[in-house]
Automatic annotation (TrEMBL), chain A:
GO biological-process terms attached to the record: tRNA processing; tRNA threonylcarbamoyladenosine metabolic process
EC number, UniProt record: 2.7.11.1
A cellular component annotation (GO) from this entry: EKC/KEOPS complex
Protein keywords: ATP-binding, Kinase, Nucleotide-binding, Serine/threonine-protein kinase, Transferase, tRNA processing
GO molecular function: ATP binding; protein serine/threonine kinase activity
NCBIfam families named in the record: arch_bud32 (TIGR03724)
Reaction(s) this enzyme catalyzes, per UniProt: L-threonyl-[protein] + ATP = O-phospho-L-threonyl-[protein] + ADP + H(+); L-seryl-[protein] + ATP = O-phospho-L-seryl-[protein] + ADP + H(+)
Family the UniProt entry places it in: Belongs to the protein kinase superfamily. BUD32 family.
Species, as recorded: Heliocybe sulcata
Superkingdom of the organism of origin: Eukaryota
Xref: InterPro entries: Bud32, Kinase-like_dom_sf, Prot_kinase_dom, Tyr_kinase_AS
Name of the featured protein: non-specific serine/threonine protein kinase
Taxonomic placement: Eukaryota, Fungi, Dikarya, Basidiomycota, Agaricomycotina
Domain Protein kinase: 8-264
Record Pfam families: Kdo
Automatic annotation (TrEMBL), chain B:
Biological processes annotated in GO: tRNA threonylcarbamoyladenosine modification
Keywords recorded for this protein, A-Z: Nucleus, tRNA processing
InterPro entries in UniProt: CGI121/TPRKB, CGI121/TPRKB_sf
GO cellular component assignments: cytosol; EKC/KEOPS complex; nucleus
UniProt key word Protein transport: no
Organism of derivation: Heliocybe sulcata
UniProt-listed SUPFAM superfamilies: PF0523-like
Domain of life: Eukaryota
Protein name: EKC/KEOPS complex subunit CGI121
Gene3D superfamilies reported for this sequence: CGI121/TPRKB
Lineage: Eukaryota, Fungi, Dikarya, Basidiomycota, Agaricomycotina
Subcellular location: Nucleus
Length: 264, 202
């Protein structure tokens, strides 16, 4: 295995996944200007794959992710800007989004915590901790319903640009507060992690993208499931006349999903 | 002048010195000097090439300090990896800034021209140089007034930037409506992102 790129030596490791490691880093160190952090994603080599094949695979995945993000930026979809691309070493750098993931804000817990769900039940009658809903209200001034509408709108904008996310989950959405002036601020829903994204105009691809999110909602936020209707409502409003077809196709996709799980 | 360091890169590439000058009076002469230096012989030629061994950038197409720093970082990384697409790390900065792959277009658009009244000057080098020394040598090449990099964005020709990056019909700009400040931030984010990902754009 090749050594980790030097740029990571001074970076802070945030998480280590199976495919990539996540870091926070400073790209332009300068005594005379404020240091703004970036979010670095390092796709390390897979030892079991052929090195040349691996390099070209990494390169095309990085190119694909960067292009999807740029397309979103040009179309006004809220995504983090790109700050560094080093395809030969497998590194992508994004604007650092100061905020929380929707998964956390809806009380879904950290990723990989599914197995320990019972601990949440044990804690339920201790009212010491802020409920996620309170946090949503106190930190961002949003009701769950408004949040759902923001999610639907942002996905709609992305699909209007013919970008399919490929991995829509509540971990891949964040809320951030944008300060336009000292006194006024707005809250933005930001879509992240375009590692599986691609471009498509097909109704089928858009419907499947939505279905993936619907399933993710059902499994990580069973209490919020009824709220999903609000996501679709806002999505439909943004999509305009495309919505009727996608909605019909979404029904088909759900049916196929159900059949598959009955067989499986 | 700002000194940006890249501790993760080889010593000879570990620093970039970036300075912005306004009220520049010798842009035309400087351009001729750069062209002549390339073909001068002997010791004299070496000295002359060293005297103009910078990337000279027209700040009218630069949207922010981050914009130029992003181009410099991509150029320095290309040099460190032996992957320059142009002759030097300094011409690579101009290449990184330009949306297309045509280097002579990059120099024409982003390089110094007679019409420049402001100039951004970049030197990539090791840490052995004294910043004060670099600043003095830059000042010997450019006749103008040294100002902070934060002035970038105020010298920008936004109409030209939009044209250069084909932004006029983009939804991201349309939704800004009359909010000029917001529109400039959106443009800057797109432009910075385009520079950062240029190596995989082709
Ligand atoms: N630009 C950003 N700034 C700050 N935090 C971010 C940014 N992008 C993503 N995150 C946070 O980091 C988490 C992981 O990011 P991301 O999903 O891109 O990595 P990943 O390794 O591909 O994850 P996974 O494969 O598990 O989905 C996200 O859930 C999000 O909360």
């Amino acid at each position: 295995m090749t050594a980790a790129p030097d740029i990571l030596a001074e970076a802070i490791l945030i998480s280590q996944g199976a495919e990539a490691a996540i870091y926070q880093a400073i790209l332009h160190q300068s005594p005379s200007s404020e240091a703004t952090p970036v979010f670095l994603k390092y796709r390390f080599n897979k030892q079991y794959r052929h090195p040349t094949l691996d390099a070209s695979l990494t390169r095309s995945r990085i190119a694909g992710e960067a292009r999807a993000v740029l397309k979103c930026l040009r179309n006004g979809v809220h995504v983090p800007g790109i700050r560094l691309v080093d395809a030969s070493q497998g590194i992508l750098g994004f604007e650092w989004i100061e905020g929380k993931s929707i998964r956390m804000l809806l009380g879904g817990g950290a990723e990989g915590e599914e197995e320990t769900e019972y601990t949440a039940d044990l804690l339920e009658d201790e009212d010491a901790v802020d409920s996620p809903e309170d946090e949503l209200q106190s930190l961002y001034g949003l009701t769950p319903d408004v949040l759902m509408a923001m999610i639907g709108t942002e996905i709609g904008k992305m699909h209007l640009a013919d970008v399919i996310h490929g991995d829509l989950t509540t971990s891949n959405m964040m809320l951030r507060r944008m300060f336009s002036t000292a006194s006024s601020s707005t809250v933005e829903l930001v879509l992240v992690d375009f590692g599986l994204a691609y471009t498509s105009t097909l109704v089928e691809d858009k419907a499947v993208d939505l279905y993936v999110l619907e399933r993710a909602f059902a499994s990580t936020h069973p209490d919020s499931e009824p709220l999903f209707a609000t996501v679709l409502q806002a999505y439909g409003k943004t999509m305009g006349k495309e919505w009727a077809n996608i909605n019909r196709r979404l029904d088909d996709v759900r049916l196929r999903g159900r059949k598959r799980s009955m067989v499986g | 002048m700002e000194v940006v360091s890249y501790p993760h890169l080889p010593a000879e590439l570990s620093r970039a010195y970036i300075a912005l000058y306004t009220s520049v009076t010798n842009a035309g002469a400087l351009r001729k000097r750069i062209i002549n230096a390339a073909s001068m012989q002997g010791r004299e030629g070496e000295d002359e090439r060293e005297a103009v061994n910078y990337a000279f950038v027209d700040p009218r197409l630069i949207t922010s300090p981050l914009h130029v720093k992003t181009a410099v970082l991509q150029a320095v990384m290309a040099q460190a990896q032996g992957a320059l697409r142009t002759k030097t790390v300094h011409s690579e900065v101009l290449w990184a800034l330009n949306p297309s792959n045509n280097i002579s277009e990059a120099i024409r658009r982003y390089g110094v021209s007679e019409a420049c009244t402001a100039l951004l000057v970049v030197r990539v080098d090791g840490s052995a140089l004294e910043p004060a020394d670099v600043e003095r040598k830059m000042g010997a090449a450019v006749q103008g007034q040294l100002v902070p990099l934060t002035q970038l964005g105020r010298l920008t020709d936004w109409v030209a930037v939009k044209k250069c990056h084909k932004l006029n019909n983009e939804l991201a700009l349309k939704v800004c409506g009359q909010d000029g400040e917001r529109e400039r931030a959106v443009i800057d984010n797109i432009v910075v992102s385009s520079v950062a990902m240029k190596s995989v754009m082709g």
